[in-house]
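Marked as duplicate of an earlier ticket. Keeping the data here for the record.
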Amino acid sequence: MIARYRRELSVAGAYGLLLVALAFTDFYRGDKLRVILVSSAPVLVAAAGMTLVILSRQIDISIGAQFSICGVVAGLLAKAGLPMALAVPLTALAGASMGAANGGLVAGLGLPSIVATLATKVSFEEALRLGREGESVKGIPDGFYWFGLGQAGGQALVVGLAAAVFLAFAWGLRHLASGRAVYAVGSDAEAARLAGIRPRRVVFGVFVAMGALSGLAAALNAARFPDVDPNHGKGLELQVIAAAVVGGVAISGGRGTLAGVLVGVLLLSTIGPALSFLGIPTPWEKAVQGAIILVAVASDAFNLRHRTHAGASLAAR
């Protein structure tokens, strides 16, 4: 049982060591941990969507562009006078429509997901650039900023909503037939098809879910600021892919848990402020994230090769 969750436990241990090491500095002075928790809440929601995609043996590198567009959509809807109870679901719907475009290209036309989402990433970014020309959405009603609850209440709501969505998807992956289908398709699409599962439908569904979750994450993130910056999603794809892979989700699909992704998100969300606190230049944060992805993917490749060789040796006997 412990061996099954070795990656998740090792990442949790690494995060614990990081927190202990920071305890010997002044890092915890002020509200740094609270700020990290609130800022990582939208990332956690987006990472849940990316986890579904990777589990099905796909990838989506357009999530940052989707996030940026959905943040602008949320701001414009609020500026138009829509209540947050309506603006947030509509923003998630906008994200789902972009996810459906990706799903159609991958599941419908059979394009490789990295090629399809690279194309949509460029298209989404150019559409946003032409539509906003880098201009933030300003003049948003006070009811949008922290959902009109003030900073303390708004922060609690952002974290609470993110946690509820994350736990719902974690439960669904474990207990629902649709969740088990995602694992089955990622492990062996042909075997899943023979078992009565429709792989293309599953793949289309995970891209739609990815889009909807990116929209929800963007709305939660946008509510943290009085103005909505159209560049908020830049680099998000690296962060959520790193969180998923570091948290034990196999880039080859079919293996991983959202519990590990949670630890991955917290670890990566803490590394940036910790590096900044220690006086290390900000660009190194991306370098560290890239290195973490490389190590995690290399570890998965090594483990897969080891299991393959072990299986072949067992069969030879």
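See parent ticket for discussion. The chain has a mean pLDDT of 88.
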